[in-house]
Amino acid sequence: MKRSTHSHFNPWLTLVVVCFAQFMVVLDATVVNVALPSIQKDLGLSEANLQWIVNAYTLVFGGFLLLGGRAGDLLGRKRLFLIGLVIFTTASLLNGLSTSSGELIGFRALQGLGAALISPAALSIISTTFAEGKERARALAVWAAIAIGGSAFGLVLGGWLTQSFSWPWIFFVNVPVGIFTFLATLRIVPESRDEHAAKHYDIGGAVTVTGGLMSLVFAIVKAETSGWTAGVTIGFFALAIALLSSFIVIELRSPAPLVRLSIFKVRSLATANLTMFLVGSGMFAMFFFITLYLQRVLGYHPLKAGLSVLPFTFGIMVSAGLASNLAPRVGVRPVAAVGMVLTAIGMLPFARMPVGGSYVSDVLPGMLVAALGMGAVFMPITLVATTGLKDEDQGLASGLFNTSQQIGGALGLAILSTIAAGRTHGSSKAALVHGFHYAFAGAAVFVVAALVLMLALLRKGDVAKIEAEAAQASPVAA
């Protein structure tokens, strides 16, 4: 692995720059949620197409993260980070200028591609900049707080921009941030790459896995309106199976596969990815349905709805910091397990929220408990997924970990939206809340399943090296 040298290199400034970009990427995954009614009205979107404004970004983001992680190892993590910033910033401008639903959905997909290049490059820059142990643990604690806090803050920013200006500004705001981050990256972030890797890009693998996942989500969404046994639903399920099977065949035969399937023999990495897939399924759905409950049931305007989830951001930041200190002492498994228990407990009150509910008594308590749990989950699971690997595998590991979260979120949202719609009989608020109850309960089930899976698969020996290095490393000044 080759790394450029900077005479005045400061790893913490590098962390600030890459977290700036990651915050923008994660924020954009949720910033549109509170603006969806305005977008639907202005562009005349149907309910199905409205959902794809979210899914086009998330699925392309998740699907091409794998290629992004691989390309970062080969091209150079800084170079790919810069390319992703250009694509993401340009797509943000085009999103704001869109005048039709087709344009907006297409540019949202392009924006997801830019995010897919930025995110794994950013995480692998952190992993190769900070030594394993307490130093990396602290850096990842900041990363976890930014990554998850950005999702909540996106709802606030989206509400304010939509209410004060108009929905295109939720995209325009990325342009100056993207330009600033690009210039700061050129000056501050060092370059690193795997000089020994074969110069091969598995485009076929990226296309088949992304197409397969999009087909799978589309089949789940169509099942809501057409039925599970309808020809169009079965057809898209069959297409998804064919594309995902092709992806596996391509990976097995490729001289330099997008995903070297043997990497899943590392138990800690495989378990961390499966766990994050399930946690992401519950987390994305919780954000989505809380926003709908606040606006459609309690009648909150966009800004008020966004501000109402701000405590979630603070709760995650606090718990991520606590988890970074506790994990070396108590162990990454107990900290993550407690986090998942708290997350599931926090979600359960949402499954009983009344039609005439109150934010203070029916929303805020569960939100705070879930936030404390989420922060405690992400820091140790990220540490497990990225520690104990060679530098040349950091890009692949980063891409897999981010993919698990994004694809899990997209599939979980599609499944729980379908369940909620199937339980919603009528157009009244009572009918809507009845459907939400099933969605929130399903989100809690996903998190409990993640807990069971982690406890069953992740052994003490799998994390012994992580815990030993974190405990023995000397403290790093913030």
Plain-language structure description:
The model is unreliable at 1-7 and 473-478 (pLDDT under 50). This protein has helices at residues 11-30, 36-43, 47-75, 77-97, 101-129, 134-164, 169-172, 174-188, 203-226, 231-253, 267-297, 302-308, 310-330, 332-347, 359-386, 394-422, 429-457, 464-472; strands spanning 2-3, 192-193. A two-stranded antiparallel sheet has the order 1-2. The chain has 18 helices and two strands. The protein has 478 residues and is mostly helical. It folds into two domains: 8-191 and 256-472, MFS general substrate transporter like domains (Growth Hormone, Chain: A); 203-255, no CATH class.
Cα Rg? 21 Å
Mean pLDDT: 82
pLDDT under 50 segments (min length 5)?
A: 1-7, 473-478
Q: Please give the share of residues in helix.
A: over 70%
Shape: globular
- The amount of beta strand, in percent, is under 5%
| CATH fold-level assignment of the largest domain | Growth Hormone, Chain: A
| CATH H-level superfamily of the largest domain | MFS general substrate transporter like domains
Number of structural units classed as domains: 2
Order of helices and strands: EHHHHHHHHEHHHHHHHHHH
Distance between the termini: 27 Å
For the secondary structure, the number of strands is: 2
- The CATH architecture of the largest domain is Up-down Bundle
Largest sheet: 2 strands, antiparallel
Number of helices: 18
CATH structural class of the largest domain: Mainly Alpha
